[in-house]
Amino acid sequence: MLWPKNEMKNALEIKWLFFDLGSTLIDESECYRQRVLSMISGTNVSYDKFFEEMMFFYKQGKKGDFLAAKKYGFSLPVWKSECEILYPDTACSLAELHEKYSLGIIANQLPGTSERLRSFGIDRYFDVVVASAEEGIAKPDPQIFRLALSRAQCKPGQAVMIGDRLDNDIAPAKRLGMTTVRIMRGFGRFAVPACPEEFPDDTVSSLRELCGKL
């Protein structure tokens, strides 16, 4: 039985929207496909079998590709950032939301996040970008959220965290007093909340749906 969800706070209270990047603004499907194909190449493990193992772990809220690779004794290949693409609703939604709110990024990413945002043509929408590689802190460490709030000069109660991961995005932000919105994208959408803090204040299926609520 799900814990009852809180209603979204009055939009007038919200000053900042913070976004995760992968599987929230950026579609990583091809990156994962290439990673799996690289791992199973030259082995007797089929794509479907490995994917099944990944899903077993993702449904538990765990890092499925890492744990499936560990089970088979595979090393994770280098992440192919060049295979990342924006979700179709990302740019138009950010443009709309940027007219009403300040926007920021809080993400676990490889080095060069600001440059990648620029290459996607969406860097102009973000006033604060806090990425793990540059800061030396990674989600779910609450310090990375505090750092973003500090740079934004924003109180937790005036901020919304939007992301796909219950463990990395929803729970730590909620503990700090931020409003949380889970977006049902990527492998994160299969995870089931395991504790009260992992139940988001709201859930959306897309950024367009988010725009209609804020």
Folded structure, characterized:
There is one protein chain. With 214 residues, the chain is an alpha/beta fold. It has helices at residues 29-40, 47-58, 64-72, 90-98, 113-120, 132-135, 142-152, 166-176, 207-213, and strands spanning 16-19, 26-27, 85-86, 102-107, 128-131, 159-163, 179-183, 202-204. The strands form 2 sheets. A 6-stranded parallel beta sheet has the order 5-4-1-6-7-8, with helices on both faces. A two-stranded antiparallel sheet has the order 2-3. Helix 2 (47-58) packs across helix 3 and helix 4 (90-98) runs parallel beside helix 9 (207-213). The protein is globular and about 55 Å long.
Question: Which class of secondary structure composition applies to the elements?
Answer: alpha/beta
Task: State the shape.
Answer: globular
Question: In the CATH hierarchy, what is the class of the largest domain?
Answer: Alpha Beta
Instruction: Give the SSE order as H and E letters.
Output: EEHHHEHEHEHHEHEEH
Summed up, what is this model?
With 214 residues, the protein is of the alpha/beta class. 39% of the residues lie in helices and 14% in strands. The chain has a six-stranded parallel beta sheet, with helices on both faces. It has a two-stranded antiparallel ribbon with strand order 2-3.
What secondary-structure arrangement, pairings included, does this model have?
Layout: E1 16-19, E2 26-27, H1 29-40, H2 47-58, H3 64-72, E3 85-86, H4 90-98, E4 102-107, H5 113-120, E5 128-131, H6 132-135, H7 142-152, E6 159-163, H8 166-176, E7 179-183, E8 202-204, H9 207-213
Parallel strand pairs: 1-4, 1-6, 4-5, 6-7, 7-8
Antiparallel strand pairs: 2-3
